[in-house]
Amino acid sequence: MYFECTYRVPYADTDQMGVVYYANYFEYFERGRTEMLRSVGAPYSVLEQEGVFLPVIEAHCDYFGSAKYDDLLTFRSYVESRSRIKLKICTEVLRENELLVRGYVVLGCVNAAKRPVRLPESLAACCDKLMWNPEMVSPEELYPLKFAPIYQERIWGGNQMTEVLKRELPEHSAPIGEAWELCDRDGIQSKVVNGKLAGVTLSELVKNYRKYLLGTKAADAERFPLLMKLIDSGEKLSLQVHPDDAACSKIGGGAESKTEMWYILSARPGADILAGLNAGLSENKIVDSLRAGETDDLLQIYPSQTRDAYFIPSGTLHAIGAGNLILEIQQNSDTTYRISDWGRKGPDGKMRELHLEKGLQSINFTDRTSPRVAASAEFSGNCENAVAKSLYFNVTELRLTELQQEDTGKESFHYITAVDTPVKVGRGEVFVELSPGESVLLPAAFGAYTIQALTPGVICTVVKTTL
């Protein structure tokens, strides 16, 4: 990944023309790499106290432009490679987005007697965090990114991904119930399918571009903060709940809190949503009923309608009914406690595991609000409808009759999902086309872009997700 720090050019760094003296860039390289190592817990001062020294044994510099007095420069540094006893650290000097100088130094690792020694394990680990893949593009070249869906077989899976979205699914022995559209989890990694970064995982993008990809709101995130899915329910999903932070602390075992929301892309006749506890029921009554396996009349039930949304905070008891095709937006967590599975058996013929006690610790018994966000009424012209605003994500529905101007503003990525018509997203010649149900990730650094229906005169619906 990159590390960046800034520096304002003083008079002392310049010649009589007010231009930075060429040899001073090697001092800039030192500033950049020193702060970079400090940022990952390996400052030079500590290394030297431990008897480890990193003298420069090779240096190189290419000049593309000139810095001047009072310029605010950005030093962008990263580790290009390392061996057991050497480090190659590159630094770029930029003024705003203009590359002025690029160079590198090779550092040898020696002890106090100036004999070569292996890099300490702690330093090697720090350097691995700062490794940058030279095949990556520069942050200024980041573009709208499409990812390959990761399909998941589920006992309750449906067929709307093929019948409604016209997707070609991989071979499967059980129904496909989920498409993980954007995922940064251990063992499950979304991969880019378009442009120069094709084949790169989401984890690698976060590691190398962090704030350029995620934005200032998640500049310190270690992984992509959201998990985006399509849910295709041929049968009713289990009755379940996700814990909040307080419940996770009590339960332990690596539990992760999860707040999510659903946006209904399509619904079969008779489909419904079960979410939120009914008012008028005491906590004791609810607990006794759940322990007895009696779930009737405990939950609020809503008939499914296309473009309706449901905000499901952690602690909300819920189930997705049969016949729904849903865009699910959630915190990057896979912790779910199954309260009831309606007596359903798994592929092995046995009842699926329940997590009643952990689930009871996770339910928010005081929240009896309605989670439904009804679809917006008729409109004229372009219209933006707030669907969900939370600490974890903000979701907006856009109903468009003409070109829509958008801008990431460097604060957050934008994740755009086409709902009912094909759309074109990007700017100039840098754009992607989306079919209904497809999505694209606009890096935070991308800036201004447009959304446009590919069919003139057609009302276009898209969902925009940001932090």
Low-confidence stretches: none
What would the average pLDDT be, to the nearest integer?
93
Number of strands: 28
User: Strand order of the main beta sheet, please?
Assistant: 6-7-10-17-12-15-19
Shape: globular
Largest sheet: 7 strands, antiparallel
What is the percentage of strand-forming residues?
25-35%
Terminal residue distance:
22 Å
Number of helices: 8
- What structural class do the secondary elements suggest? alpha+beta
Rg of Cα set: 26 Å
**Helix content range:** 10-25%
Note down, in words, how this protein is organized.
- With about 475 residues, the chain is of the alpha+beta class.
- Helices cover about 15% and strands about 35% of the residues.
- The chain is built from eight helices and 28 strands.
- A seven-stranded antiparallel β-sheet has the order 6-7-10-17-12-15-19, with no helix packed on it. Strands 1-3-4-5-2 form a five-stranded antiparallel β-sheet. A five-stranded antiparallel β-sheet has the order 20-21-28-23-26, with no helix packed on it.
- The chain is globular, with a radius of gyration of 26 Å.
Could you give a quick summary of the protein structure above?
With 467 residues, this protein is an alpha+beta fold.
Any chance you could write out the topology, listing elements then pairs?
Blueprint: E1 3-8, H1 24-39, H2 44-49, E2 56-63, E3 72-82, E4 86-95, E5 98-108, H3 121-129, E6 150-153, H4 160-163, E7 176-182, E8 184-185, E9 188-189, H5 202-214, E10 226-233, E11 239-241, H6 245-251, E12 260-267, E13 272-277, H7 283-291, E14 299-303, E15 309-312, E16 318-320, E17 324-331, E18 337-340, H8 356-362, E19 372-373, E20 383-389, E21 394-400, E22 404-407, E23 414-418, E24 423-427, E25 430-434, E26 439-442, E27 448-453, E28 460-466
Antiparallel strand pairs: 1-3, 2-5, 3-4, 4-5, 6-7, 7-10, 8-9, 10-17, 11-18, 12-15, 12-17, 13-14, 13-16, 15-19, 20-21, 21-28, 22-27, 23-26, 23-28, 24-25, 24-27
